[in-house]
Amino acid sequence: MPLLWAAGAAWAHPGQEEAQLKAAFIYRFAQFTQWPPPPPGREFNYCVAGDRELQDALRVVAQKPMGQAAGRVLVLGSPAEAGPCHVLVLGFAGRQELQLWLDALADSPLLVVGASAEAFRAGAIIALVLEPNGMAFRINHSEAKRRGLMLSSQMLKLAREVK
After folding, report:
1. DSSP assigned state of 36
2. For residues 111 and 124, is the Cβ–Cβ distance under 8 A?
3. pLDDT > 70? residue 24
4. Which of 4, 50, 43 is nearest to 27 (CA)?
5. Nearest to 126 by CA among 78, 75, 72, 87
6. CA angle in degrees (0–180, nearest 5) for 57-62-67
7. How would you class 50 by CB atoms within 10 Å of its CB: exposed for 0-12, middle for 13-18, buried for 19 or more?
8. How many angstroms separate the CA atoms of 43 and 143, rounded?
9. Under 8 Å between Cβ of 19 and 139
10. What SS3 class is residue 161?
């Protein structure tokens, strides 16, 4: 299956455009990740903490099925609510807030995606980074393996940085 990372559409303003691009990346990340048994059931849950525009953009992406599972977006207020999540998107820019969530969910088999460069330094598995020439991402492959997740080699090749 070819990897398609760009999303083509007309957007109302830059913040919304960035959120839609991030949502498209997150959908692809989920497609190229394998979770430990048991596999996702009839629902595939994208969970978001922070970043209202990204929540809205993920709702559009979640309408596409993930394999046999229907997509759903859950908005979380605390790490304790992350039980049903497969992908957790942290829309926080501050390291303290990121660290709180990452520490609380350290052993969960979640694909944790941070929507900022700071998320990568804090320990997220994938961090989306807006660069002058577009969107890029960094992968903490060691953290993914520690959580029991297998990331596609295709995705690893496309990452700006892998550690």
Report:
1. P
2. no
3. yes
4. 4
5. 87
6. 150
7. buried
8. 24
9. no
10. strand
Contacts of 31 (CB under 8 A, 6+ apart): 1, 66
On the question of pLDDT at 23 being above 70, the answer is yes
Distance between CA atoms of residues 3 and 155, nearest Å: 8
User: Rounded distance, CA 74 to CA 102, Å?
Assistant: 18
Q: Give the model's pLDDT for residue 4.
A: 40
Q: Which two tokens stand for residue 106?
A: 């350290």
What sections of the chain are H helices per DSSP?
14-31, 52-61, 95-104, 117-122, 141-146, 153-158
Lookup result for tokens 């520690």: 146
Residue 66 has, within 13 A of its CA and on its CB side, a CA count of 28
pTM of the model: 0.86
Alpha-carbon span 161 to 148, nearest angstrom:
20
pLDDT in tens, 36-93: 886 666 889 999 998 788 888 999 988 888 877 888 999 999 999 999 999 999 988 7
Token pair recorded at residue 133: 């020439």
